[in-house]
Each structure stands twice: as C-alpha cells, then as structure tokens.
Amino acid sequence: MTDLIVHPHKQPLEDGNVLNITPESAGWQYVGFSVYRLEAGQTLRKQTGDNEVCLVLLTGQGHVKTNRASFNYIGRRMSVFEKIPPYSVYVPSNDCYEVEAVTALEIAVCEAPGRGTYDARLITPEQVGVETRGYGNLERQIHNILPEQEPADSLLVVEVFTPNGHWSSYPPHKHDQDNLPDESFLEETYYFRVEPDQGFAVQRVYTDDESLNETLIVKNGEAVLVSKGYHPVSAPPGYEVYYLNVMAGPTRTWKFHNDPAHAWIMKPPSER
C-alpha cells in the first residue's frame, strides 16, 4: 500500500478533525493541511504559532475571528460541486483563529511557515481568480484562492474542478527543484472530493528515472502527498473530481517543469 495517500478518520475527532497532515507526518518541511467538520454551534480554536494559515470554507457558513479581525456569516456553498469560489480567511503567524459553525461546516486549514508580514484578511469569492485551463478533455476550472500575486509569506492555495472523463495537472508537471527562474521547489498536498462520492480519481506520481512510480486510486475525502515528481490527475467517466491544492517551499513562486515526453501536447497542431 502506498504511503502517498492520507486517509481520513472513520469518524470526526472531538474537535471535528477528519484529516490531518503535518510536516512531521509527511516527512517534509513546509506544508501542513487539515480538514474539520463542525456541527452547527460547534467552535474550533487554534493558535497559528510560527505558521501562517489560510482557512478555506469548503462548505457551510460560519463566523471567523482572529486577534484583530472578525468576519461573520461567511460561506455560501453547500457543496464544492456548486463550483462557485469559496470564502477564505488569511491568518498570519503569531495569531489565533476561532471558527464558529452557523450551519454544518467543512473547513480546510492550510498552513506553512510565516513571518507575520501581513494582517489577517477575508478573501471573498469575488476576489478569487476564476479561469478555465486546458482544452478538450484537458479542460478544467481553476479557483485561485491565494496565488503568488496575492500577499502571503509562503502559502499558495488553489482549487481545481476536473469534469468527468477529463485530465488535470496535465501535461504532467513537477516543481521539485530549487532552480529558479526555471523551476521552484514546492511541497504540495491534494485534497480530493468526488461526485458521486462512491467514485474515485486516478493520480500518477513519478520521477524521470521512475525510482518513484506510483499510480494511485484516490477516494472521496482522501489526500495525496506530492514532495517530488510529476503528478497528473484523471477523473473517470461519470465522476466529477475536485481537489484543493496547498503548496509551499523556500520561495513563494510556482515555476513548474513539464515532462519532456508529454510537453508536445501543449503545442498547436501545426507544430507537432
């Protein structure tokens, strides 16, 4: 069994946690990721410590408070497959956050090292960059929640919707070399949701020399750890696939390298 897949708990823990990834559990340095499911009226309180945090309200509505800011009645989608951008809250290091669920609430906690450079802020759906990427059965919808153009110390956060029968994170690309300006080193987590939820996604993770060469069957609510290698995703016919990506590394920029064997796919037909 591969150790790249992180499975959710069978039942939420007392604080609502259903999935937890730390740098220690992942065997890396930068990215932490967790998911909480809160019942209406339930409250989650955490200190950020040395990390900055991006709270992504996956589904439901709630109130969020930090040491110096409060954001009430945020969140509007009841399913990620409504495909509308989420509400999110950025929280700097050496701060805290309190999330109170107004309705049943699923929230993703994205973490990476922070320096306290920026204040806590609300990221509204209108501030999320929405784009369609790819063509044909490579087409997918992107929600740029916390891209490198927006202020943060380390975190990069994005949602991707892959229609049934389509591919994403494709052509296969990697970002495992600290070799700027050509490529940046970024650890990455993929948090998957599948509709209908009995379905699955397929993700391959492999290196040029194939010393790492895994083909993963990923189920609803599971996460995948990508510390190196190319990592394309496929949505089987009949199943929509959503994933939330969290990336961080020594430099906050996304510079990727396509697998040379498959880079030709992006060329116009006249140049192939």
Description:
1% of the residues lie in helices and 48% in strands. The chain has 272 residues and is mostly beta strands. It comes from Paenibacillus sedimenti. InterPro entries: Deoxy-glucuronate_isom_IolB, KduI/IolB_isomerase, RmlC-like_jellyroll, RmlC_Cupin_sf. One of its GO terms (biological process) is inositol catabolic process. GO terms for molecular function: 5-deoxy-D-glucuronate isomerase activity; glucuronate isomerase activity.
Number of helices: 1
What topology, given as strand order, has the largest sheet? Answer: 1-22-19-24-14-13-12
Instruction: Find the count of extended strands (DSSP E, 2+ residues).
Output: 25
Low-confidence stretches: none
Average pLDDT for all residues: 96
Radius of gyration: 18 Å
Question: What characterizes the major β-sheet?
Answer: 7 strands, antiparallel
What is the global morphology?
Answer: globular
Structure classification: mainly beta
Instruction: Report the β-strand fraction as a percent range.
Output: over 45%
For the terminal residues, how far apart are their CA atoms? 39 Å
Helix content: under 10%
Give helix and strand order, one letter per element, not per position: EEHEEEEEEEEEEEEEEEEEEEEEEE
Oligomeric grouping of the chains: single chain
In a nutshell, what does this entry contain?
InterPro entries: Deoxy-glucuronate_isom_IolB, KduI/IolB_isomerase, RmlC-like_jellyroll, RmlC_Cupin_sf. The protein has 272 residues and is mainly β. It has one helix at 23-26; strands spanning 5-6, 17-21, 32-38, 43-47, 51-59, 62-66, 70-74, 88-91, 96-101, 105-113, 121-123, 129-133, 140-146, 156-162, 167-168, 173-174, 176-179, 183-185, 187-195, 200-206, 213-219, 223-226, 233-234, 240-248, 257-258.
